Amino acid sequence: MLSMMAIRMDLKIFPFLIALNCCFSLPVTAQDVSDLKLKDYRPVSIYKIPVTNIEKAKFPIVDFHSHDYPATDAALDEWVRNMDEVGIAKTIILSYSVGTSFDSVITKYARYKDRFEIWCGFDFRDCDKPGWEERAVNELVRCFKKGARGVGELGDKGLGEFYSYPGNASGFGLHIDDPRMKALIRKCGELKMPISIHVAEDAWMYEPADEKNDGLMNAATWKVDMSKPGILNHDQLVKTLENAVRDNPATTFIACHLANTCSDLGMIGRLFDLYPNLYADIAARYAELAPIPKFVHAFLEKYASRIVYGTDMGYEKSMYRTTFRILESNDEHFYEHDRFGYHWPLYGLGLSSGTLQKIYNGNSKKILAK
Ligand SMILES: [Zn+2]
User: How much is the pTM?
Assistant: First the structure.
């Protein structure tokens, strides 16, 4: 927003700058600025204010939202070294997978059983054929016996469940509140397997990619195509989650990315108030939270017992440290253009020790199977 205003202002004073340029030599010519595109705008904070480098998190962390990133055993070893250095005690791999895909992920991480939990997906293969619900429950139980202690990441961006391996066997047409999902969700409750589920996308992805779009730096290329037949919109998708959470009180749900309600946190706050079996992770939504630090500080302090840490952004040390800076520090007006892609300046949330402790690992003790 600020950057767009700055560019518009530059364009407005363009003739004036040309006039000035006749008399003075400017370090950047007016012509250069008029050619500058919003996507190339990379402001550097001008403020001489404290910069906090947090090498290691204040408390040991359970990361509730990561994926099977390393391609080799050596890369996995590097990940564990990074976790040690920055203070990640345990990482949950949301594998999405079932069958042989799931088994191979289990095997890959077997050397680090105490550092990783592998969660499975739901098996959507042949979900349009008779007997699917029973087959899918049987596969869930098989994955549980192999070591799965949760399910995720389920994902519904409007057309139905679509994260599933092997074979990208999607459950299009199946939303989480579909009666055909009931047996699986109930079984998760019985087995004490939490369900980590991504519904919808952030609000700016539904808005026209124009001069008013506050997330335009990302929305220009990343948007939801609402013209697809039968696609649910943002609020309808959050409603499917609410229906499932309400109708399955014995099953724990974790809404990925705060159910993509960062621009209207009251939506998920209302669900927290109503349903004790709902939690949310803050994975990959740091840039959406950090522009409004006072509001988010109050929100996270209020709902600290319902929020869990997550990343969903690889395993670089600098990535973890950026999340710590946002959660722990009171730093102001800093940019992370390359990591998050927005034009928004970010602010530390300055969370209290009690809240950090709950988000980092306290709530995990309630959610994870003993
Ligand atoms: Zn994810």
Answer: 0.90
